[in-house]
Automatic annotation (TrEMBL), chains A, B:
Keywords: Flavoprotein, Oxidoreductase. One of its GO terms (molecular function) is oxidoreductase activity. Its cofactor is FMN. It comes from the Bacteria. Transmembrane segments: none annotated. This is Flavin reductase family protein. Belongs to the flavoredoxin family.
Length: 187, 187
């Protein structure tokens, strides 16, 4: 697994490349001297530029108030090697346990926000809260990605996609239909 | 590919099973006697019950006004066999072409809404608009899934997950970590 120093800056307007396929993510937070991390599968890209993403962060999570108050988080994209950590993080609460210590998750300092990067992940997206209009009604947070770090390889990480019931789909083969697009439709 | 009559009713509170992994979807609509279909990758589950999902439907799409006015749509989940149709639907506009006829996409009647089911898809989720509070600002529609139809097999469909740049990740193997969950965490 690449260490954070092996990650490269990545254009924030292109985070759809990693988030649109729908991986489970680890969302880290920091508030009043403590950090936490949660597993999250309910998210969507909302805009290329500014780089906006929406996260449904259930109110029962210890992270909910930490993120609501700090107005920041980091979205980390784990791969197959981290599946057990993803489950452990998802099945425990930061109110009871320091998950980073308990599950051996090394962290690294983010560039802009105070929430830590989960070092073993393939990509890290530092986020600032952009709009909380739907937080009360739906626990839906709209963030702007302000900094992105991505491992240069593998080109197609084996991300995890949760189907419920304790089962994950692992990202499979990649097929290109680039030839079916007009040049002006592609970057 | 199963025909619509081979689909089974599926509990609407469980649609996360098909949507949380993040597949590209075909969203069909109907307004003033005409139907349309678009390709969409920016969606998220928001709640189990009521069964809420959020879709970012870009304003430039012909479907935008049809869905905003009819307040309904169907979310259809295509699989690998439909990749060329997914691209053709995504790269054309309902303002210029009847995509169902042009691309040979058979439809079937929905149970509750007037938008058609795209018959060759693995699953169909009939939706009614629940909240348009973020449509003006973010083109973000919150729908309630009011009826779900799913093919009973295969159990793990080879869904398509768009990464941009004309490339799709195809759903790969499934791994279970069910043994790591307490029984009360699972259905």
């Amino acid at each position: 697994m690449p260490s954070p120093r092996q990650k490269q800056d990545f254009p924030v307007q292109n985070v759809r490349r990693y988030l649109e396929p729908g991986p489970i993510v680890l969302v880290s937070s920091h508030w009043q001297g403590r950090s936490n991390v949660m597993t999250l599968g309910w998210h969507t890209v909302l805009e290329f530029s500014p780089s906006l993403v929406g996260l449904m962060i259930s109110r029962g999570n210890h992270s909910f108030e930490m993120i609501r108050r700090s107005r920041e988080c980091v979205i980390n994209v784990p791969t197959e090697a981290l599946v057990d950590s993803v489950v452990r993080v998802g099945n425990s609460s930061g109110a009871q346990v320091d998950k980073f210590a308990a599950y051996g998750l090394a962290t690294a300092q983010a560039s802009i926000v105070r929430a830590p990067l989960v070092a073993a992940c393939h990509a890290h997206f530092e986020c600032r809260l952009r709009d909380d209009a739907l937080v009360e009604r739906y626990n839906f947070f709209i963030f702007e990605v302000v900094k992105a770090h991505v491992a240069p390889s593998p080109r197609h990480p084996r991300t995890l996609h949760y189907t419920g019931d304790g089962a994950f789909m692992v990202a499979g083969k990649v097929i290109s239909r680039r030839a079916m697009f007009r040049p002006d439709m592609l970057p």
